[in-house]
Specification:
The chain is of the alpha/beta class. The protein contains 12 helices and 19 strands. Bound molecules: S-adenosyl-L-homocysteine (SAH) and iron/sulfur cluster.
Length: 433
């Protein structure tokens, strides 16, 4: 979502005459878009700001150029004042719901006045109605935010505080943006939301729609090749969405469905409001309509009060589901969240041991999944040049990264590849047509 927001902020500065700079040293304005989800991500912001201070000072001394530094995103939202105290060279602090005001803030900056501008409101208007109509160039795949914010208040999570309450854009606004993206080169869309499947927007018929219905509508756009969505919450996996996986060819057979823990006691303490069995049942329902769906998830180890037995429940759940990929984290106590104040915090070395064991299992599952794809054929959309020399890069319908030889002119085209080698983090293949 930050990648999407960054693109939109960039779009919003185009009418002011700015264009994207390839080199940090040439930039007149530097926007750093930040993440507050875990402490590590948050702390990175301050080290990055130290680096940017030097860039700013150098431009002033050597070229008499006043570089403006903007901090956007969820760290800006949560720690706006703190940022301007610790890094007084920052000019603007703007939150995730007010970045449509960035051009105004930039225009308001007075070069002779050393005051900072901070805008971290939760405004009554939605930014989506005020972002410029015109969007910059996009690649073969693009993000499209359909839903934002969260009302679920898991006890470990800052999102409801930094992104605000749940909001769904209307189907009309989403379809319009999808058409614009398609006409600027996009063939595959990833629908985004903090809980994307909690999307309940105004439909084209004036009734409220769910995500399954929206996906069906988007699939009717002829130039659109493929649709994905992320991140989903187990409580919002309704039948319409599950059935879309069976009925909509353009929807990939892949689901990222976080559970965080396999222990009901911990799930309860996390305020997830479902059990491990509820989660397993959802996946059974999905696999009964679309057998080959690849599963992904998020896990947190070392939540306060997690015992060896609770952790073993998580390992058992992972063994039961079988993941094609997953994200896993050590619990990070976030200021202002209920779990941060709990007394039974798990020791750091225990968290590290558990994370290692969990990741070994998830890595083994991912490797087996990739290995199993050897000699399979996939139709893929060529996204970019690969990191490795002349190889091209794409994603399979199961979201694996796949590399193959081919000319750069194939970027943005659809090719059929045959997998020759399944490795830990990617596949290698040959184009067959
Ligand atoms: N809405 C999604 C997740 C959004 S946050 C859901 O509810 O499933 C993305 C992921 O970050 C979470 O799934 C969780 O695994 C991780 N995360 C969030 N807060 C965290 C914290 N305090 N410590 C460690 N991981 C955290
Ligand atoms: Fe955070 Fe997701 Fe829970 Fe919302 S549902 S509070 S985004 S983890």
């Amino acid at each position: 979502m930050n990648a999407y927001d960054s693109d939109r902020m960039k779009d919003s500065l185009l009418p002011l005459g700015y264009q994207e700079s390839k080199d940090l040293q040439d930039a007149d304005i530097i926007v750093i878009n930040t993440c507050h989800i875990r402490e590590k991500a948050s702390e990175k912001v301050f080290s990055e700001l130290g680096r940017l201070r030097k860039v700013k000072e150098r431009a002033a001394e050597q070229q008499n150029r006043q570089v403006k530094i903007v901090v956007a995103g969820c760290v800006a939202q949560a720690e706006g004042e703190e940022i301007t105290k610790r890094a007084p060279w920052v000019d603007i602090v703007v939150g995730p719901q007010t970045y449509h005001r960035l051009p105004d803030l930039v225009a308001k900056l007075d070069p002779l006045d050393r005051r900072h501008l901070i805008d971290t409101d939760f405004p009554p208007e939605t930014k989506f109605d005020f972002l410029p109509e015109k969007i910059g160039k996009r690649g073969p795949t693009a993000f499209l935010s359909v839903q934002e914010g969260c009302d679920k208040f898991c006890s470990f999570c800052v999102v409801p505080y930094t992104r605000g309450s749940e909001f769904s854009r209307s189907a009309k606004a989403i379809i319009n943006e999808a058409k614009k993206l398609i006409s600027s080169g996009t063939k595959e869309l990833t629908l985004l939301g903090q809980n994307v499947n909690a999307w309940h927007g105004d439909g084209l018929d004036g009734k409220e729609w769910g995500l399954g219905r929206l996906i069906r509508e988007l699939a009717d756009l002829p130039e659109l090749y493929r649709i994905r969505y992320t991140t989903s919450h187990p409580l919002d996996m309704d039948d319409e969405l599950i059935n879309a996986h069976a009925e909509v060819d353009k929807l990939i057979p892949y689901l990222h469905l976080p559970i965080q823990s396999g222990s009901d006691k911990i799930l309860h303490a996390m305020n997830r409001r479902h059990t491990a069995l509820d989660y397993i049942r959802i996946i059974e329902r999905l696999r009964s309509v679309r057998e080959d769906v690849a599963m992904s998830g998020d896990f947190i180890v070392g939540f306060p009060g997690e015992t060896d037995k609770d952790f073993a429940d998580t390992i058992n759940l992972i063994n039961k589901i079988g993941y094609a990929s997953a994200y896993s984290f050590k619990y990070s106590a976030r200021p202002g969240t209920p779990a941060a104040d709990k007394s039974e915090q798990v020791l750091e070395h225990v968290k590290s041991q558990r994370l290692l064991a969990l990741q070994q299992l998830l890595d083994a599952q991912q490797y087996a999944f990739n290995k199993n794809c050897e000699s399979m054929e996939f139709e893929v959309l060529v996204e970019r040049k690969g990191l490795k020399g002349s190889k091209l890069n794409a994603r399979t319908p199961y979201m694996q990264s796949v590399y193959f030889e081919g000319s750069e002119s194939l970027i943005g085209k659809i090719v059929r590849v045959k997998v020759s080698d399944g490795r830990q983090n990617s596949l290698f293949a040959e184009i067959i047509s």
